[in-house]
Write a structure and sequence with these properties.
Strand content: 25-35%
Radius of gyration: 20 Å
Distance between the termini: 13 Å
Number of strands: 15
Order of helices and strands: EHEEEEHEHHEHEEHEEEEHEEHH
Oligomer: single chain
Helix content: 25-40%
Strand order of the largest sheet: 13-12-11-14-15
Shape: globular
Length: 292
């Protein structure tokens, strides 16, 4: 019998994550796979006498985490991790995601990497901000490179708003991005498993420029158009993702917004009726067996 571990963040009490873990446990159990849930504060991977040591009795680890260090150590011990440490690290950094995906023919909004400040007293100059405005225009989206559920994403409509936002986040990694007017408050979330699109939903929010369900967005099932499906599958392949949610901005030319290696799927399952948890569990089982 295959054995697995679902590794979760010890500080994450988000109900959507709890539901996600429960759904995966349910589907693995139905498929005859023994899976244990562990929190990532148990030091399941460590370095001893210069060697990686892992204390996980499992054929695979389902990594519901963003801690790249533990994932790397697990892989050093020969344990198959879903998603891989490298893919998870890329998706966890929004700017890095865009860099990895650029030059591959994937449409994306114009994006500028923010200048990281290492000095709390450092001044955010007007010239710096004006250069961003001259390039991208206003309103402009500003994103911290690390964040989930639409948090750490801001909309600056004026110079003063932009300055306030950047002064607040200057000590963290962030980016500037062109605002896609046609997609304001709406986008498409597409789930890709094992390199193919399995379902998609439209998300729309009449009260916020962010479409995230966590911010009040409403979801409905949609047949993913072939061009968008091709873009999403290509994205997952480039990054090396077994599972992901790809967010697509809508307009005359659909554009990739973000890639989430640990996308929640409660709203997706409810909207589409597709058993995402089962499809992901089946993909993991098939991949592990093929590795043996």
């Amino acid at each position: 019998m295959l054995k697995g571990v679902i590794l979760t963040n010890p500080y994450d009490d988000n109900p959507a994550q709890t539901k996600k873990v429960a759904r995966m446990l349910e589907e693995f159990t139905k498929l005859g796979v023994a899976v244990e849930v562990k929190k990532n504060d148990a030091f399941v991977a460590r370095i001893v006498d210069g060697n990686a040591e892992c204390f996980v009795d499992a054929d695979f680890v389902l990594y519901f985490e963003k801690d790249k260090y533990v994932a790397e150590l697990l892989e050093k011990c020969g344990i198959r991790v879903f998603n891989s440490a490298a893919a998870t690290a890329i998706c966890d950094d929004k700017m890095l995601s865009h860099i990895v995906l650029c030059n591959h023919g994937i449409p994306m909004p114009a994006t500028l990497p923010g200048a990281l400040c290492y000095n709390e007293k450092g001044e955010v100059t007007d010239e710096y901000l004006q250069n961003a405005i001259d390039t991208l225009g206003l309103p402009m989206v500003v994103k911290q490179c690390h964040g989930s559920f639409g948090e750490q994403v801001y909309l600056a409509s004026t110079f003063d708003e932009l300055k306030h936002i950047v002064k607040k986040i200057k000590m963290s990694a962030y980016l500037f991005q062109q605002y896609e007017f046609q997609s304001s408050g709406r986008d498409m979330r597409v789930i890709v498993i094992g390199g193919r699109v399995v379902c998609g939903m439209m998300r729309e929010n009449l009260d916020d420029f962010r479409s995230n369900v966590a911010h009040g967005g409403k979801a409905k099932a949609i047949d993913v158009p072939k061009d968008i499906a091709k873009m999403c599958e290509k994205t997952a392949n480039i990054i090396g993702l077994d599972y992901c949610g790809v967010d697509v901005l809508l307009g005359d030319t659909p554009k990739l917004c973000e890639v989430n290696s640990n996308a929640m799927f409660e709203a997706m399952e409810a909207a589409t009726g597709v058993n995402v948890a089962k499809l992901y569990a089946e993909h993991i089982i098939k991949s592990v067996k093929n590795d043996k």
